[in-house]
Design a protein that fits this description.
nine-stranded mixed beta sheet; two-stranded antiparallel sheet; globular; 294 residues; alpha/beta
């Protein structure tokens, strides 16, 4: 598949028209139109609706755009990493993290390393937990910070891991909700509103782990992924949903609007324990640099 055509598709969607995309890329509008038609034929998908010299992105086109944008972003990061690696194979650490919560922990460690005189170049990406584990195993990333939670151990024998933080998951509840005044959130109330969780990419990890942490008698709950933390905060604040968060990392990550209380579940607390763990290959040539960072 033509990489330049995918980049042109990304531009068309973001500019909203073939003409504007053509002007930005300094090519003829006809060339843009023909290229997009070839892409649709190649994929056997209708990406655009064309009406009266206007275009509209189809639902399939919108889904394809989100996947392509993420793919191109990761491609560019990896190319830059390979270019830097060619110049000096030991001057860069490629690090992944799952969410802004782990990102805050990572940022503090990176700043501390720089203050201590580290001359290593750090390349940082945010991905789903499944994606992070895969990228570390494939050596695309040197290491990654993941959130371990629930009953399923996703770290296999080829990976080394180090826990750098522990706490428990809590429920974010709007102060408009009568349950927000309680010391703990009643587990029976989980079925009353949608339950949100954050993940930057399509992922079912936190959904499955949250369900696995509940008693088998709890059912009829609806969980939904949010890819924007700010939007999740707004929905919870308006009492349209509740959400679960890693306690201890919330206050330093999200802006406290004073409209949400964070309550532990009225359940065995051990089932809600989580840890932030750094994973890397056991035979990674940069183990020393990784351990120094941690």
């Amino acid at each position: 598949m033509d990489l330049d055509r995918l980049r042109l598709f990304e531009t068309v969607v973001e500019m909203g028209s073939f003409q504007k995309a053509a002007e930005k890329r300094y090519i003829f509008q006809r060339a843009v139109s023909q290229s997009m038609k070839k892409l649709e034929n190649e994929l056997n998908l209708q990406l655009f609706m064309r009406e009266n010299n206007k275009i509209f992105v189809t639902e399939v086109g919108q889904q394809f755009y989100l996947k392509i944008k993420d793919m191109l972003h990761n491609f560019d990061i990896n190319v830059r990493s390979l270019q830097n690696h060619k110049i000096n194979p030991f001057c860069e650490l490629k690090i992944g993290y799952f969410s802004p919560f782990e990102g805050n922990l990572l940022m503090k460690k990176l700043i501390k390393a720089k203050e201590d005189g580290s001359n290593i170049k750090y390349t940082v990406v945010e991905e789903s937990i499944e994606h992070l584990i895969s990228d570390v195993k494939l050596k695309i990333l040197d290491c990654a910070l993941i959130l371990e939670y629930g009953n399923h151990n996703k770290i296999n024998s080829s990976l080394e891991s180090k826990v750098i933080y522990k706490n428990q998951m809590v429920m974010g509840v709007s102060k408009l909700n009568k349950n927000s005044k309680l010391a703990t959130f009643p587990i029976k109330e989980l079925s009353q509103k949608p339950i949100l969780y954050y993940s930057p990419e399509e992922s079912h990890y936190l959904k499955k782990e949250f369900i696995s942490s509940l008693p088998s008698t709890i059912d009829h709950i609806h969980l939904a992924r949010m890819s924007a933390l700010e939007q999740m905060q707004m929905i919870v604040s308006l009492n349209q949903a509740i959400a679960y968060y890693p306690n201890g990392l919330i206050q330093e990550t999200v802006i406290d609007n004073g409209l949400i209380n964070y309550l532990p579940l009225d359940i065995n607390n051990n089932s809600q324990q989580y840890s932030i763990t750094c994973i890397y290959l056991k035979n990674n040539s940069k183990r020393k640099e990784i351990k120094n960072l941690l």
